[in-house]
Design brief:
Elements lengths: L7 H8 L4 E4 L4 E3 L1 H12 L4 H7 L4 H4 L1 H18 L8 H4 L10 H24 L16 H14 L6 H8 L3 H8 L1 H25 L8 H11 L6 H10 L11 H9 L21 E11 L3 E10 L5 E7 L5 H8 L12 E4 L3 H4 L1 H9 L3 E4 L9 H13 L8 H17 L11 H10 L1
Parallel strand pairs: 3-6, 6-7
Antiparallel strand pairs: 1-2, 3-4, 4-5
Helix pairs in contact: 7-8, 7-9, 8-9, 8-10, 11-12, 12-13, 15-17
InterPro entries: Homeodomain-like_sf, HTH-like_dom, HTH_Tnp, Integrase_cat-core, RNaseH-like_sf, RNaseH_sf, Transpos_IS3, Transposase_IS3/IS150/IS904
Protein name: IS3 family transposase
Keywords: Coiled coil
Length: 442
């Protein structure tokens, strides 16, 4: 393209020529008829400038550079493609959507291309290996490079002509990216990358088979660093083991947990409380959790408690030698003796299996309580209850207890002391039970 720009008067002058399709300040588009005329007359020995002048073009307006470049471009296209090279194909290859309605033949061709694409994509996904767990639902998606590869295979397999833009639209990729994928530089780059991946594969296999113990990506990374002094990025290792299907044995999921997920038997509840532990009313926010108690010669018991978040009072507790569902349900049943609970009382816990169990949740509804749960792995959502267990273990001594009955006596003694005699700085220096009475009077 020449650097010379056309003025408004020159554009109007060029538009009046029948051999001009369009003209702007920077470029001019000639008709296919004029290109064919130019090739015919030039083959007979006529100079390019004379052909343009005879066709009514002002030579001084076009300029010698523009005429020379157009001449070279048309002659090269005619030598490579014949008359088809002189046809303006930009209307077929532009990124603009067609304003006219497609013909039946064009609609059929596009539907056929889409159907062939879906068939090829399904075949590719059948070959793809998935290491996902059975109870996880995750959609498999093709990478951009895999889509380019499928388009290339389809163009070679099926007789699709001028359907690159249709296939790219179906696959959701750009045509420029596809053409770059097919370029020689990109092919050489992929070939060089494949060679590097093969070398890395050999190194990874050494770590994978080290001591005849198959390993996952993280174990491979640590083995390479410790045994071979090689530092590889974890993502890079994972890419290689996925590419060459280097798989280690994966532990099977607990069948009971998988069944619970599949049947959705154990349901979690939203975090309705959102750490609003102090509503200003006693008996409205209840916190519950379970902790273990070590006594005697490494024996273990379990303690379940329900705490009033406003007054810090322990309303119910249960000690058991087993971590079954009964320890949570029995603790919950003890709340029935408390008459100061509000009608909209809410019980908050973590996502332990006791509290997601249908039996526990059914009992909560029968008692007219609402249920809330902490976010997964977030102990701060039940911080006051965790804080109580910390003080409880600091202020009790179970080393001298040899039987479960002695443990229960020690827990009972502490609960009486905690609720009725142990003052707390944030409760106006009162024990929890007396502070609740003060709130009720107020």
């Amino acid at each position: 393209m020449s650097k010379k720009h056309f003025t408004t008067q020159e554009q109007d002058q060029l538009r009046r020529n029948p051999y001009v399709k369009n003209v702007s300040a920077k470029a001019i588009t000639y008709t296919d008829e004029f290109k064919e005329r130019f090739i015919q007359e030039h083959s007979q020995g006529t100079l390019p400038s004379e052909i343009f002048q005879e066709a009514g073009f002002p030579i001084d307006v076009l300029g010698a550079t523009r005429i020379r470049k157009a001449s070279n471009r048309w002659r090269t296209a005619f030598q490579e493609q014949g008359s088809a090279g002189l046809t303006d194909g930009r209307k077929h290859a532009s990124g603009r959507s067609l304003t006219r309605e497609l013909s039946l033949e064009e609609k059929y061709a596009r539907l056929e291309a889409k159907m062939k694409w879906l068939e090829a994509e399904n075949e590719f996904l059948k070959k793809a290996r998935s290491t996902r767990k059975a109870d996880e639902k995750k959609k498999i998606q093709l990478s951009t490079r895999q889509k380019f590869k499928l388009i290339q295979e389809m163009l070679h397999t099926y007789s699709f002509q001028r359907k690159v833009h249709v296939l790219c639209a179906i696959a959701g990729v750009s045509r420029s990216g596809y053409y770059h994928y097919c370029s020689e530089d990109a092919r050489l780059h992929r070939q060089k990358q494949e060679q590097n991946d093969q070398k890395m594969k050999a190194i990874i296999l050494k770590a994978y088979h080290y001591r005849r113990r198959n390993k996952g990506a993280r174990q491979i990374k640590m083995t390479l660093a410790l045994q071979y002094g090689v530092i590889y990025n974890l993502k890079r290792i994972r890419r290689i083991i996925h590419k060459y299907n280097i798989v280690c044995t994966i532990r099977k999921v607990n069948p009971a947990r998988r069944m619970a997920k599949a049947t959705q038997e154990h349901r979690t509840c939203p975090n309705t409380l959102k750490r609003a532990f102090k509503p200003g009313i006693a008996g409205k926010v209840l916190l519950t959790d379970i902790t273990y108690l070590t006594y005697g010669t490494s024996k273990r018991a379990y303690l379940s408690t329900i705490k009033d978040a406003e007054t810090n009072e322990i309303l119910a507790y249960e000690v058991s030698a087993y971590l079954g569902l009964n320890i949570a349900t029995e603790t919950l049943k003890q709340l029935r003796k408390h008459r100061h609970l509000t009608p909209d009382a809410l019980i908050h816990s973590d996502q332990g299996f006791h509290y997601t169990n249908p039996k526990f949740q059914k009992l909560v509804k029968q008692m007219g309580l609402k249920q809330s749960m902490s976010r997964r792995g977030n102990c701060w959502d039940n911080a006051p209850q965790e804080s109580f267990f910390g003080h409880f273990k600091d202020e009790t001594n179970f080393k001298t207890c040899m039987t479960l009955e002695e443990v229960k006596q020690e827990v009972k003694s502490y609960m009486i002391y905690y609720n009725h005699y142990r003052g707390q700085w944030n409760l106006n220096k009162l024990p929890p039970a007396r502070y609740r009475q003060q709130l009720e009077v107020a």
